[in-house]
Each structure stands twice: as C-alpha cells, then as structure tokens.
C-alpha cells in the first residue's frame, strides 16, 4: 500500500528499522555501504514487515564520527551517493509503504562546516556566535567538563586564544542555541527535508542543546548536569515543532542522553507540542560498573526490570517511548544479555519478545533480526570508532590499564560491535561488498546471514516478523497498562499488559538453566491462548498457573474476556 496521506498516530502500532548506511550494503566495491545498496534491499525490509526506516546521517561529512559530524546539511555525502540516489530511495520506499526518518544532528556541526570555518580564528565573523566560545581560566580550559568521548570538552582556537565547546569529538563543535539565528538555520534544515517528503526525524542528543549559561566547574561529575535537559530545552523543542514538525505531520524521536522520566513525559507529551517519542538509555547501563561504561561486568537483572517498570508505568498515558536493545552505539544484545553461542537463536528471540510486547514503538537495528553477534575482535587495529580509539589511549596510556584488559572491555562495550557489515549471505564478505570492507566482519557470517534466515521458518528473522505483526493485531500491546509480575525473581522477567478486554502475558527466562514461576490466580490460564514462543510447540501447550521455562524460553499468552 503506497503512502498517500499523513496519519497522525501510525507510529503507535509501527516498528521502525534502523539502517547504518556505512555498514548496510555496498552497491559496488568501495568497501562501505551506500544509498543504492539500501534501495536494492527494500524488498528484504518489506518482507520483515516494518513500517519505516530510520536512516543514520548520510549528509556531507568528513566522517570523523561516521556522519554525526555534518559539514553540509543540504548535500549527500558523495561516498553514499547523490541527491538523486536519495530521491530514488525515498520514492521506492514510499511505493512499498515504507516511511523514511532522517537523522538530524543539530547539537553540533563538524568543524569543517562553513559556519565553523568562518568563525574559527575570527571574533568578528557573523558565524562566531553560532558556537560556544570561552576565555581560558588561569591559562587553561574554561571549566573541567569532559567530552563524551574522553578528555576535555574544550578545544583551543589558537587564532583568538579562546576555547570552543565540543561535548563529543573535538571535530564536532557544539552549536549555540541561545542565538536565534542558529534556531532559524535548524528550522531551514528540517524544512528542506520535510519538504522533500521525508516522514520524520530522529534528533541526535537533542536534550543537550540548552546549556546552563554559567559554565560552572562540575565538582561531582563530568559536567553533564549543567547541559542535560537544560533550562530552555523544552522551549526550543516547542519552537521547532511548531514551525516544522506539526506543519508536516512528521513523526519525531528524540535521543535523550542521561535524561529523567519527568523530562521525557514532557518531551513526548500527548499534546504533541514537542516530540512524538523518546529514546532513553537507562536500561542499557545495567552492565556499567558503578555507572562507568569502560568496565567489564555481568548485567544487573533486577535493576533491568526496575528500570523497565519505572519507564513503562511512568510513560503510560503521559508520553511515548521507543523500545530498543540495539543501535549503532550499542553492542549486539544477543552477545550482551543473551548467549551468542549455545543459545543464540533462543536468546535472540527471547530478548526480542521481552521488549516488543511492551508499550512504545520498537526499533530493530540492522542485523538484529538475524541474531547478529559482536565480532569478538582480538586486535586493537580492528577498531575504527573514534570513541573506542580515544578510550584505548586514555585507559591504557594514561590510566595504566593493561592492554589485554582493555581489549576485553572493548570486545564487550565498543560501538564497533554493532557496526560490522550486515551479513547478507555466505559468500565472500557476506555479500556486503565486492571490495575490502571498511570494518572487519564477524566471522560467523557463513552461518548467520539473511539468505539462510529467510530459508528457515524457525529463524530469528521470522520471529521478529511475527512480533511486528502481533503489534498490529493485538490492541493491548499498544494500549495496555504494564505490571511486572516478579520483580525479585532472579531468572524470570514476566509482565502483564492489560486493558478492558485483554490480558497479555510475556514470560521470559533470561538464563541458561530451567526456571519456574507461579502465575497469580487472577490470570485464568484455562482461558489463555499462546500467541508465540521460541521452542517448538508440541511440548509447550499453555500450561496452568505453574510455568516451567527452558533456557532462554519466552512465552506470550493472551487472555480475552468474553
Ligand atoms: O549518541 C549520543 C551518545 O551520547 C551516546 O550514544 C554515545 O555515543 C555513547 O553513550 C558513548 O558512550 C549520538 C549518536 O548516536 C552517536 O553515534 C554520535 O557519536 C553522538 O550522538 C554524537 O553525535
């Protein structure tokens, strides 16, 4: 079905597929993916059954942070193709009924952007005030804030002796949103893409755009409390939303770094004044030891359930969240919370079920639907990500961490874990490129690949397809309230979703041993119908109140009132 008119709430029963173009499909032999490659795979995406694609940045960029450093918002990076290639992708996707969501990065620009190039070294440039400049304090950085990629968040402009702020790499300078001209430029950018016909926007680190203007030293942290969910962020979002998003009926999803439920209730409030929905990352920090990502530690299962409970109950009726395990910044979930060897297929399906049955809009990151794993690199030269290479230097050279220990941490935490090329088939380089891939593939591609998955009705791929269909068929998945049934259980994560007519139960064993639970009597299991599970079904009838789950088993039941 082709898309003809905007439907305000289509995204509440939708699933969105994230594409990281550099690693998706190379139409030639450059070794990196491109727009034509994506267009050639639209049939595959359609088969999965998703409603929209979120395309991570394809704009002109020096690619220090793989496109999150934009040097021209109105041009396509030639390495990805041309504007014509983009238009073809958009129109072919629309013909298949697939919407396109663009990634908008407006907390910062590349230092190669013409605004920054004009501002650098020239206090009189009309663009100087587009960025954040401060005088040195006692001959050093203006304050002690740290960049998210390690080291100071300030870099020196030698021409003027002032420092500019960069919350990410030093090649990504933060924009000064206090300046109304910056906000007008941002509107122009979004307007340009909306006018082209794109259906929505994913807004990169959008809750960092408003900084407290005192720029104080942070005695207890890295500075984030002075710019996260900052003083004018809601005002700015309302301004952009009113001038562009609402006009075009765009779906919007904001990436919220280190945010709070209260702020997210407002960002995604149902009055539609700011954004459609939000990403938060609290559930993906359960394997950070004392909040520090650069550690290797098992995940905290009880905390994981608490976080889901907090967000599922807190957003219900107030806002809307994105449901996700994977993206281009996160390791592969099957390697992270599942078992990517003996129970790869079972655990990939169980993890999928356990978030797809929640309230929100699920996002599937390329390859997740195949149960793709981390690559388990053994050589530091295999890593490409600016965050990983920076952190290796800092941890090994400055903090004295042993090389082997840092390699183990990177194998668990590096963003490159999810950026390995998409595994299409069992031929050389998994059919990703005819050239030399920009990043080494995971070596398991002869077994784990799209072609094999499509040929096997029991594959992870069809399980995802089924989950995506269920969301459209069973209304309680969209509107039911959430209840965690066993918050203290050490192995089972089970929750109920309920509305006036239906109860949905999603019961998951997160471990490699058998696990048991007894469902409360108020759920009449004699009336339950099994919707889906990840073990062959002859032996898994519904069962009664007592449920015995096999390793990484998931069971989804529906009870409907007469
Ligand atoms: O990421 C924002 C962000 O803060 C994290 O995902 C971050 O990469 C990670 O926590 C560091 O440990 C967004 C983009 O998704 C990411 O790819 C970009 O590098 C970043 O913004 C800067 O644009």
Automatic annotation (TrEMBL):
Its EC number is 3.2.1.93. One of its GO terms (cellular component) is cytoplasm. Transmembrane segments: none annotated. GO terms for biological process: trehalose catabolic process. Its main location: cytoplasm. GO terms for molecular function: alpha,alpha-phosphotrehalase activity; alpha-amylase activity. It is found in: Cytoplasm. It holds the Pfam family SusG_C. PANTHER family: ALPHA-AMYLASE FAMILY MEMBER, NEUTRAL AND BASIC AMINO ACID TRANSPORT PROTEIN RBAT. Belongs to the glycosyl hydrolase 13 family. This is Alpha,alpha-phosphotrehalase. It comes from Vibrio caribbeanicus ATCC BAA-2122.
């Amino acid at each position: 079905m082709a898309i003809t008119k905007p439907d305000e709430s289509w995204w509440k029963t939708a699933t969105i597929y994230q594409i990281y173009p550099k690693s998706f499909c190379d139409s030639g032999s450059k070794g990196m993916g491109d727009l034509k490659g994506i267009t050639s795979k639209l049939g595959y995406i359609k088969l999965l059954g998703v409603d929209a694609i979120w395309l991570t940045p394809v704009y002109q960029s020096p690619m220090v942070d793989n496109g999150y450093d934009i040097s021209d918002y109105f041009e396509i990076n030639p390495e990805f193709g041309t504007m014509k290639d983009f238009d073809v992708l958009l129109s072919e996707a629309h013909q298949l009924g697939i919407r396109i969501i663009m990634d908008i990065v407006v907390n910062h620009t590349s230092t190669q952007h013409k605004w920054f190039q004009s501002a650098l070294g020239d206090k009189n440039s009309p663009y100087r005030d587009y960025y954040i400049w401060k005088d040195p304090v006692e001959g050093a950085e203006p304050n002690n804030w740290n960049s998210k990629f390690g080291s100071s968040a300030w870099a020196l402009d030698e021409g003027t002796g002032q420092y500019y702020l960069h919350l990410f790499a030093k090649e990504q300078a933060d924009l000064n949103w206090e300046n109304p001209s910056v906000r007008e430029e941002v509107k122009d950018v979004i307007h340009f893409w909306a006018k082209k016909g794109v259906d929505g926007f994913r807004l990169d680190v959008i809750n960092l755009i408003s900084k407290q203007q005192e720029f104080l030293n942070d005695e207890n942290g890295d500075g984030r409390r002075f710019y996260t969910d900052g003083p004018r962020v809601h005002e700015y979002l309302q301004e952009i939303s009113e001038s562009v998003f609402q006009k075009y009926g765009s779906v919007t999803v904001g990436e919220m770094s280190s945010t709070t439920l209260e702020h997210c209730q407002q960002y995604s409030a149902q009055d539609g004044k700011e954004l459609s929905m939000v990403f938060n990352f609290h559930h993906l920090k359960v394997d950070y030891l004392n909040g520090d990502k650069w550690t290797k530690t098992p995940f905290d299962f009880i905390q994981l359930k608490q976080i889901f409970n907090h967000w599922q109950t807190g957003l219900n009726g107030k806002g809307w969240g994105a449901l996700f395990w994977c993206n281009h910044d996160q390791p592969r979930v099957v390697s992270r919370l599942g078992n990517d060897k003996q129970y790869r297929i079972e655990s990939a399906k169980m993890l999928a079920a356990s978030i797809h049955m929640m309230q929100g809009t699920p996002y599937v990151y390329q390859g997740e639907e195949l149960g793709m794993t981390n690559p388990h690199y053994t050589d530091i030269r295999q890593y490409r990500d600016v965050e990983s290479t920076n952190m290796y230097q800092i941890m090994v050279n400055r903090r004295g961490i042993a090389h082997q220990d840092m390699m183990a941490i990177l194998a668990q935490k590096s963003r490159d874990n999810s950026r390995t090329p998409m595994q299409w088939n069992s031929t050389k380089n998994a059919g990703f490129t005819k050239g030399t891939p920009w990043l080494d593939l995971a070596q398991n591609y002869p077994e784990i690949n799209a072609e094999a998955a499509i040929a096997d009705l029991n594959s992870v791929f069809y399980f995802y397809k089924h989950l995506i269909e269920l969301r459209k068929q069973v209304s309680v998945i969209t509107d039911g309230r959430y209840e965690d049934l066993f918050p203290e259980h050490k192995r089972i994560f089970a929750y109920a979703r309920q509305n006036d007519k239906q109860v949905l139960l999603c019961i998951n064993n997160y471990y490699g041993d058998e696990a048991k639970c007894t469902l409360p009597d108020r759920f009449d299991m004699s009336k339950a119908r099994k919707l889906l599970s990840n073990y062959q079904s002859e032996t898994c009838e519904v069962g009664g109140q007592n449920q015995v789950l096999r390793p990484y088993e998931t069971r989804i039941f529906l009870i409907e009132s007469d």
